[in-house]
Amino acid sequence: MDIKDYINENESRFMDEWFSLLRIPTVSSCAANKPDMEKCAVRWQTLLMEAGFDKAEVMPTAGHPIVYAEKIVDPSFKTILVYGHYDVMPPEPLELWKSNPFEPEVRGGHVWARGADDDKGQSMIQLKAFEYMVRYGHLRYNVKFILEGEEEIGSPNLNTFLKANCRMLYSDIVLVSDTSMLAPDLPSITTGLRGLAYWEIEVTGPNRDLHSGHFGGAVANPINVLCELLAKVIAPDGRITIPHFYDEVDDLSDEERKMLSDIPFDEERYKTAIGVKALRGEVGYSTIERNSCRPSFDICGIWGGYTGEGAKTVLPSKAFAKVSCRLVPRQNHETVARLFVDYMQAMAPDCVSVKVTSLHGGEAYVCPISLPAYRAAEAGFYKAFGRKPLAVRRGGSIPVVSDFEQVLGVKTILMGFGLESNAIHSPNENFSIDIFKKGIEAVVEFYRVLEM
Amino acid sequence: MDIKDYINENESRFMDEWFSLLRIPTVSSCAANKPDMEKCAVRWQTLLMEAGFDKAEVMPTAGHPIVYAEKIVDPSFKTILVYGHYDVMPPEPLELWKSNPFEPEVRGGHVWARGADDDKGQSMIQLKAFEYMVRYGHLRYNVKFILEGEEEIGSPNLNTFLKANCRMLYSDIVLVSDTSMLAPDLPSITTGLRGLAYWEIEVTGPNRDLHSGHFGGAVANPINVLCELLAKVIAPDGRITIPHFYDEVDDLSDEERKMLSDIPFDEERYKTAIGVKALRGEVGYSTIERNSCRPSFDICGIWGGYTGEGAKTVLPSKAFAKVSCRLVPRQNHETVARLFVDYMQAMAPDCVSVKVTSLHGGEAYVCPISLPAYRAAEAGFYKAFGRKPLAVRRGGSIPVVSDFEQVLGVKTILMGFGLESNAIHSPNENFSIDIFKKGIEAVVEFYRVLEM
User: Fold this and answer.
1) Is-contact A93 A60, C-beta < 8 A?
2) How close does chain B come to A333, measured CA to CA in Å?
3) What is the ipTM of this complex?
């Protein structure tokens, strides 16, 4: 049977199954939803078995369980590992929803519910493509399926799980449907993500808060010093001044710049959407280059001294900031973490002490477009959407992608079908039923044409 | 009768009266102490009448009452207005006190209690000097006495009271005992105070918090911009860069610098006391010059973005700071307030909007040492302490001094007898009984030699 026919014949069942997941409020950050997490994991286990997996298990972690399923067609075959997550973001503010976030509704050809896209809808696409392949598609790969319940809270237990189960999870490629396309008529595949380095800075001046009248002008104020230090990290041309920071940063090739400039982008609309009159960044680069392919330095938080109502004069003892760099491929986050610590220490005047703690980091990711699995994903989008997808790099980080590369040593294909208008993490999350169907077709085509 | 004899003869009564005030917990910031404020005001009223005033009243304000007393010896005489306050700072942390803060104890020749110095002890010195003058001293001036109950919370109702009662308070000089000397064997009179200008800054970037991965590098981060702006306000040589900021700042004369350098000052001890390895300030000026006679710029508070536990990436919508300048004589605080607002607006890049609000300000104060009342105070210290007091300028502001100058048009003599070791505002506040007595002698001498 043809995939289109299969979808049409089974559409109402697909919807029922999808809705059965959406009705379970799997807010991973909410302790009260703990029983729902278990319930949803078990529901997935059933759906996975019904779709044709040989086995499906709900495996405990220190947090919410992970669902694992596998179909070993032939041990000598190559293996695809599909990743998704069954947890969702909190639905608040509830008053902005047009319908109950946990009672899915179809309106205007879209399904409206928390998780309709992220990631219950997209995971369902993967499940139904697999189901078709088992029944009518001549599956030439082993397939493993892993669904976690903690993606929206930073996957605190995934890395441990991967390490503990790396034999079970052995695979040749990871397939993830958890990202977006540029537009319904402009399919795209995310091929690059930025890495991250994150620090907390503590500047200590005097041993207690001082009277700014009695001491001001003679004793260094740690907030003043913190501002001075942080202001030096970005030069007037937008370059980051940390010594050796750019040593491993490759400049963009002409081909890459051409590809990036092909991505439709309306700067006026972008500015209007975020409410700014002007943009600012590294001189010599476009906005898309700046926010996806070039490193950045942001102060994520700052605090110190008196922050209450009115005017209280104080020369505080301490000042703090949380700062981060987005990194690009080949920049090692641990190296950058050290470079920044050294830089701050070197710049710190002797009138204060400066402590810099590295809190968190992750490597950038790049999926080479020459990879057979990338070509297969490209063919899938072409078949379903009638247009070759653009390869785009994104400025954010998806920690699980780094985990798969570092723990399992395997590349990830981000075959995502979301849209900006799907409002993930916001009220009125939704997913187009048309794109849901096209997604299934695209993944089926991926299975068909993939040659590893 | 000689003043020394009078003090010796009446010492135990003086102590009883002083202690009766110290036992009333007049913490002006504590709503639960409201009845105690009233009680203490009434107690003062009684003491004032007993000391020899013609009348004494407890006068209501929008906050705690003001006690007012007067003795009109002859309407054609000149008038001295004595100012003090009966409220105190909170005693917390209580566990650090060696005895109950509101049960005065004598140990080692000192009285230990909250308010022992600030300002119940010092106000008592004024009262007892007046009492002696009435009984044995041939009083050649009219004397008015005002005690407020809100000095420690910023005197929110004093200015209004002064304006409403300026005829009643008409005087030729104000005498205040609420400051400190350099050391018991090194008497000093505060002749200058710095002024203040205080602003809040709000920097707004995007219309909501953005994902620092998706936008970082392309959109200006308001915390980064705030740090850049604030870092520019002080040049590497420690000079404030606000245009025209120094236009009205007089450089110190050789004589003034000589007087300042005569003040004993141990820089190593100063650094050790506040726990810093190095000091920092305007190039070309000593520490004492920097913290008392030169203007300063301090960031009193800063906040924005994520300030909780751990690593959260965000490109925030807003960043805030509270900043202040200490000003020196001839700098008008309103002019400086405008200069800073203009400076920030001129420097603000068009990728953010910057709002600067002037919250508060006050003029600097200088008491010319040629003033007859200054010379009389000098003579008083000389007589009681055996040494001519040094004229010192202080870096802080005493708002009531500005109020007296601006509302009543009268200069203030800060004839204070405190010591750094008296621990005002801290646990174990205390006052030396020996200095208490010498203070009375000094004020009596002031009355005797003053020729206005």
Assistant:
1) no
2) 15
3) 0.85
